[in-house]
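Subject: Sanity check before I submit

Could someone independently write out the structure tokens for this chain? I want to compare against mine line by line before I put it in a report. The sequence has 416 residues.
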Amino acid sequence: LRIPDICLVLIITSFIILLPAMKLTAQGVLSQGSFSQGILSQGSLSRGSWFSNNSAGKESAGSESRDFSIALLVDTVTDPWLWEEIRGFQAACSENSIQLILMNAKLNASTMLSNVDAAIRQDVDAVAVSNVSQRMSPLIIDRIFTSGKAVISLNYKLIDQSGSSRQLAPHFGVDYRQAGEAAGSWLAAEAIQKRWFQEPSINPGIAVFQLQGVRESRQFYSTLINTLKQAIPQLEDKYIHAVSHSYNNPLSSMISMQELITKHPEVTNWIIAAHDDAAVFGAARALEQVAFGAYGIGMGVNGGYAVQEFSREEITPYRAVYYVDAYAQGKKAAETLISYLKKGTPLPIHTIPQGQIINCDNFRSQLLESADHSSGKEDQISDLNSSRGRLNHDRGRSSVPGEMKETSADDNSRDE
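---
Independent answer below. Compare away.
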């Protein structure tokens, strides 16, 4: 053979040998590219979790032998219910020898994104996000997915912003339609029993607190109002007053309720509802300031302030809560994520905790005696006299207990 013929044979042979590898590489690039695009544009979930088909994420999943780390990204650590959820998450990590890095965004959306980047730089294996600013969801998901990390959402879903509000990641949190129906039914029964909509001398008003741009808050609000209207035929839209916040905390809720009372002096009795009991806690203080404590009925969701309120001797407008065990939810979320990392167990699309209605009559048996992890709740009762005036319910913890590292990408930002 001539030299040109030999070169041609070598080129053809090399191409035949490398062709299968080239096909696999091309298929991997295309599959990852199309999957990322599908998540951001459609928010589709497949096989139980958005990253179940992510080959980059699966490289670290299913290994019992190596050490793992998880970043828990939260909006704030001053909310008592969220703090219990963090404690539950930390307990599961400690039991499974997982390093947990807690990152506090301090109610700042930019800091949340910075914390996402910081978690990726620290090369954690998975990220859990509790983020109330849902408009940031696509950015958060895109950055975490690009890095090949596993991700779940807590409390508020990570959703796309195309108008469909589709879920982008496995989620652990309350079904707020279910919570809205439960709260609406309970509040309606109380109002009917007290004849608030039958007595001519009573002019009731309904204050419902909402979070701006949060889908769960809208779901709670619409279901609550529909349930109230079905149960109370006399209920008209003129009785309903929506209060919108960027973040539900006791102080802002108290101020908003004060403004509502001043604007509507004709209202003699108030019904208060919110998808977060922090708002009900603050609104209750506003009613007490004008001696309306006995003329208010309030109910929220979660229960971070339940023990503090139900232990009071005097009547408080904070009458009931759709209680969700924050500690148990945090622990369940961490255990599920750890099972994915160590065993490759697929993550469920939505894990809904069991809620129950708690009030001053049953809170001791339901919250204090039945929970093994409620050691700090009894202490709240003895400290009620000094804590009644506190609206920012910070438990005074300067650092996170246990084997948990607390960091923030921006330590100059602060909680509101």
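---
OP: Matches mine. For the report I'm noting this point. The chain has 14 helices and 13 strands.
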